[in-house]
Amino acid sequence: MKTCLPAVMCDASTDPLSLNLGFGRVVGSVKCCNKDLCNSQTLPTPADPESNGLQCYSCDSSACRNKVQCVGVENRCFNGTDCVNCFSELDSMIIPGFNFTDGPTCCEGNFCNSVSTTRLSVFPLLLGLISLIFIY
Description:
- With 136 residues, this protein is α+β, with helices and mostly antiparallel strands.
- It has one domain (7-135).
- It has helices at 7-11, 89-94, 123-135; strands at 17-20, 25-28, 51-58, 66-71, 76-80, 83-87, 105-107.
């Protein structure tokens, strides 16, 4: 794939780009340039990565309890709206560059992207119900 990218994707790193979607993996190399038609060369496909020991949760259409084994440079877990997966450090550095107001985050450590960290707590609901009882 050859295209235009935000500068943050070029400034973040020269590492390979890798993310595990749970149902498949996207791996690629990123090389940036800033002159007209300077991206004519074809980059080599990264080698098949080996397991690195990190495990993250991933979602399917019904739940976010699937466990995926991260590989290669996938050294972060990803939390998004109904989406949790493995990401590379490059991917996690790119996310802040898009200025999400309440968006995806990355974390380090096995299963750090647990669904419980991406869902609302029951505490505000209970507090609201208790308040209603005292008001009425």
